[in-house]
Specification:
By secondary structure, this protein is of the alpha/beta class. The protein has two domains: 2-197, 3-Layer(aba) Sandwich (Rossmann fold); 202-445, NAD(P)-binding Rossmann-like Domain (Rossmann fold, 3-Layer(aba) Sandwich). Helix content is 45%, strand content 13%. It has helices at residues 10-21, 33-40, 51-61, 70-76, 97-109, 126-140, 161-166, 178-188, 203-234, 238-246, 267-280, 286-298, 301-309, 337-347, 360-367, 379-383, 403-409, 424-429, 440-443, and strands spanning 2-6, 25-29, 64-67, 79-82, 114-118, 147-151, 171-174, 198-201, 318-322, 351-355, 373-375, 388-391, 414-417, 433-435. A six-stranded parallel β-sheet has the order 3-2-1-4-5-6, with helices on both faces. A six-stranded parallel β-sheet has the order 11-10-9-12-13-14. Helix 17 links the parallel strand 12 and strand 13. Helix 9 crosses helix 12 (286-298). The protein is elongated, with a radius of gyration of 24 Å. The protein binds nicotinamide-adenine-dinucleotide (NAD). Nicotinamide-adenine-dinucleotide (NAD) is lined by residues 6-12, 29-32, 35, 83-86, 98, 101-102, 120-121, 154, 156, 158, 265-266.
């Protein structure tokens, strides 16, 4: 099938390349000309495992093309996906300008029937608005086309976006239009092993399902971070608690990791947006208010542990920070807990020596150059001359460090493990103080 996509970001690019791999003829548009020019030459604007090879294969086969020409993208596909960014401000107001700009463009340029699909995460009712904007443009120029607008939220995870596109847990199609449902069912056929994975529903339910999913994930994380606090005071180990409850089939093992707080481009913004949606309808979401508050506190947890260790004397200390991205296998720094740690340490007069396997340049763009921040080219370099080490992102390359060497290099050997990646006993056996999240044993010492 001929498919157009607007938005060559983490989602759009992964989805476009996966559609091309499945044999569809894909034209992917982005408003960022430099991004498109790079992609046309096979240069990746972001880090996502397996994506570079998939894009290269699509370009070589001619099934994947990139354009900055809005009109060309509006004319190419019988299905047109809107996969642009939908940021939310601090109050949860979602900026739909990019979505509506694409909808208006389709209305201005389209000359044949089309199924338009809103894949961006956007508040309930956005597909209705897209339809209105699009039809407004069509009627203004007297164009008589059949255009169906569907909602098709995306559930992929950064860091495994390609895998998730190739093998989604489920595909949610929000449309009551049989033609749109038939077209999207055909489009997704190569990705759906079992018909039960294809969930067809009305647009509003599909839109809400995306927010509800992210709210649930955020809730699980904040719940476990609260349990971690309990564990710290009770002298229990949250890792043991996690295993015990994760083995319960009613609960399941995923998203039960206590840590330095959730980050990324989606959870925080989607929780804010959902809260605002409900508040506007006169129904404040109390659970999510607590989820946000817990996460806010949790992002400051590593700093609190450091304050405890250094007995409040953080000024003048140098902290090595391993990992900056909000999770491994991505260079995405949006809302990353590392940003809060860096900010607190700098405000307290500490220096930081930071290293991340792939997020150095996105982090540098966000944080900027400061006297107290040294950008290091390797994990070992970050340790040189540091007092202590903070582990913020659980990249595989940090999982088995040489603790004996760390003990030698650090001036005041201590590890603040924001992802509970290490075993306290192993670290302590090397002569290093260990602080994890919710590992009461080490705090109560
Ligand atoms: N990142 C994730 O893990 C994830 C997962 C599921 C859903 N989502 C949702 O998917 C959407 C896209 O997220 P993302 O992380 O890929 O965003 P992103 O910021 O990485 O990419 C968005 C792209 O859209 C482009 N764009 C903006 N306006 C445009 C226009 N008018 N025409 C063409 N291109 C335009 C931008 O230049 C950018 O390259 C968001 O609504 C997000 O909430 C994201």
């Amino acid at each position: 099938m001929k498919v157009s996509l607007f938005g060559a970001g983490y989602v759009g690019l992964s989805f476009a390349a996966s559609l091309a791999e499945a044999g569809h003829e894909v034209l992917c548009a982005d408003a960022d000309l430099a991004r498109i020019e790079g992609l046309q030459r096979g240069l990746m604007p972001l880090h996502e495992p397996d994506l570079e090879a998939l894009v290269a294969a699509g370009l070589a086969a001619g099934t994947l093309r990139f354009t900055a020409d809005e009109r060309a993208a509006c004319l190419h596909g019988e299905v047109i996906f809107i996969v642009v960014n939908t940021p939310a401000d601090a109050e949860g107001r979602v900026d739909l300008r990019h979505v509506m700009a694409v909808a208006a463009g389709i209305g201005r340029h389209r000359d044949r029937d089309a199924v338009v699909v809103c894949k961006s995460t956007a508040p309930v009712g956005t597909a209705d608005q897209v339809e209105m904007v699009l039809n407004g443009e069509l009627s203004q120029r007297g164009a008589r086309l059949r255009v169906a607008v569907a909602a098709n939220p995306e559930f992929l995870r950064e860091g495994s976006a390609v895998r998730d596109c190739r093998r989604p847990d489920r595909v949610v199609i929000g449309s009551e239009n049989p033609w749109a449902v038939e077209v999207l069912t055909r489009l997704y056929a190569p990705f759906v092993e079992n018909p039960a994975q294809l969930l067809v529903m009305d647009r509003r339910s599909a839109e809400l399902a995306k927010y509800a999913a992210n709210a649930m994930l955020a809730t699980r994380i904040s719940f476990m971070n609260e349990m971690a606090r309990v564990a710290e005071h009770a002298g229990a180990d949250i890792e043991m608690v996690r295993r015990a409850i994760g083995a319960d089939r009613r609960i399941g093992p995923d998203f039960l990791q206590a840590g330095a707080g959730y980050g990324g481009s989606c959870l925080a913004k989607d929780v804010r947006a959902l809260k605002r949606m409900a508040e506007r309808d006169g129904y404040p979401l109390r659970i999510l208010t607590a989820v946000e508050a817990t996460n806010h506190e949790q992002k400051g947890r590593l700093f609190e542990l450091m304050t405890h260790h250094f007995e409040g004397r953080i000024a003048g200390k140098t902290i090595a920070v391993w990992g900056l991205a909000f999770k491994p296998d991505t260079d995405d720094m949006r809302d990353a807990p590392s940003l809060v740690l860096l900010e607190r340490l700098r405000a307290a007069g500490a220096r930081v020596q930071v290293y991340d396997p792939v997020a150095m340049s996105t982090a540098r763009d966000l944080v900027g150059e400061h006297e107290g921040v040294r950008w290091c080219g390797a994990a070992d370099e970050a340790l040189q001359g540091a007092d202590a080490l903070a582990l913020v992102t659980e990249w595989p390359e940090f999982s088995r460090p040489d603790f004996a060497r760390i003990a030698q290099v650090l001036r005041s050997p201590a590890i603040f493990d924001g992802r509970n990646l290490y075993e306290a006993a192993t670290v302590e056996a090397a002569g290093i103080a260990y602080y994890g999240i919710g590992r009461g044993r080490s705090l109560l010492r």
